[in-house]
Design brief:
Layout: H1 3-12, H2 15-26, E1 33-38, E2 47-57, E3 60-76, E4 81-93, H3 95-98, H4 103-117, E5 122-134, E6 146-157, H5 167-181
Antiparallel strand pairs: 1-2, 2-3, 3-4, 4-6, 5-6
C-alpha cells in the first residue's frame, strides 16, 4: 500500500473511532504495568483496536490481559451502542485461593467495581470467570500444582460528546482490574462499598508452560 492508499484508508475511518483510538494511544498505564498495541481481531466488528498489558514485579509477570475496542458505526443490537470493549485477563493463583467458592463472584465484582470506582457509565456487561488447575506427573512430577484464574468480559461504554466514549478512563479501570487480579491493591479510586477492594494473594513463582 503506497502513501496515497494509506491516507485514503485513514480518511475512511469514522471520526469517533479515530478519536477513541487516539485517546487510547495517548493514555499512560500506572507504574508496574507494561502495555503495547497488538493485532486486533478482524471479524468482530468493522473497526477494532487492541492492546495487551502485563503487571510486572521484580521481572515477573503477575497478571496479563488484552483489551479490544470494537466499533460498528451502524450500531449493534446486542451492544445497544456503537462501541464495545472486550477483555481477557488472567493470572496464576495459590491453589487454596483457587478453591475458594466465592472466587468467581469476587473476580466479577473486581471488573464492575473498577468501572464504578472510576465513575464510568456502561451497559450490557457480560462475561465468564474460569478457574483451572494443573497437576504434574512423570518427568514433571516435581512441579507443584498450579491454578489460574481467567476473566473474559465485554461491556458497552456510554458515548459522550461527538459519539465518543471516555475510553481512556475505561482503560484506567481495566488497569485497576489487572492489578487486583495480580494480587496488588487497586491503584485507582474505588467506591466506599466496592467489593473490588478485596485482593487475593497470587502465585509468585514462574508460570507453568
Amino acid at each position: 500500500m503506497d502513501g496515497t492508499e494509506e491516507n485514503a484508508a485513514a480518511e475512511a475511518v469514522p471520526p469517533p473511532f479515530r478519536s477513541a483510538v487516539e485517546a487510547l494511544r495517548a493514555a499512560r498505564p500506572g507504574p508496574g504495568i507494561e502495555m503495547e498495541q497488538t493485532r486486533a481481531p478482524k471479524r468482530l466488528a468493522p473497526y477494532a483496536y487492541a492492546l495487551e498489558a502485563a503487571v510486572v514485579e521484580d521481572d515477573e509477570d503477575l497478571a496479563d490481559g488484552r483489551l479490544v475496542l470494537l466499533h460498528d458505526p451502524a450500531g449493534h443490537d446486542a451492544w445497544k451502542g456503537t462501541f464495545r470493549l472486550v477483555t481477557l485477563v488472567r493470572a496464576d493463583l495459590e491453589p487454596e485461593m483457587a478453591a475458594d467458592p466465592l472466587l468467581p463472584d469476587v473476580c466479577w465484582s473486581w471488573l464492575t467495581g473498577a468501572l464504578q470506582g472510576r465513575g464510568l457509565s456502561y451497559g450490557e456487561p457480560s462475561g465468564t470467570v474460569t478457574r483451572a488447575g494443573s497437576y504434574y506427573f512423570g518427568g514433571l512430577a516435581e512441579r507443584p500444582p498450579a491454578s489460574q484464574i481467567e476473566i473474559r468480559a465485554s461491556w458497552t461504554p456510554r458515548e459522550g460528546l461527538g459519539g465518543v466514549p471516555d475510553v481512556a478512563s475505561h482503560l484506567a479501570a481495566w488497569c485497576d482490574l489487572l492489578c487486583q487480579v495480580a494480587g496488588l491493591p487497586p491503584t485507582g479510586p474505588t467506591g466506599p462499598t466496592d467489593a473490588s477492594v478485596v485482593s487475593l494473594p497470587q502465585r509468585r513463582g514462574p508460570r507453568a508452560t
